[in-house]
Amino acid sequence: MEKLTLLTLALLLAPLSAGGQAQIPHDFELARDAVERGEILPLAEVLSRLQESHPGRVIEVELEYSSDILVYEVELVTDDGRLIEVDMNAATGEIVKMDEED
């Protein structure tokens, strides 16, 4: 019988450490898979579109469900120093909501 390596043992025990349930893929894996299936646009394309209408420095991006659609929620500091949050339809790149942060 072959000896189990620590890596093999860790892989075998991983489901047990998660309470016996399968692990949920990371957000980036879900996003990558959705892009590969053509369900959403790549983040680089969406950010390029956003820079055309709202130039600035991107601080944070999240992919979330909002009103039953996937949206990229982008926080950025505009060139004039304002902090804004822009929700963009992840499938079309259209801006669906924009808020200025305090």
UniProtKB/TrEMBL annotation:
Keywords: Signal. Residues 1-22 form the signal peptide. Gene3D superfamilies: 3.10.450.40. Residues 41-98 form the PepSY domain. It comes from the Bacteria. Coiled coil: none annotated. It holds the Pfam family PepSY. InterPro entries: PepSY (IPR025711). This is Peptidase YpeB-like protein. It comes from Paracoccus lutimaris.
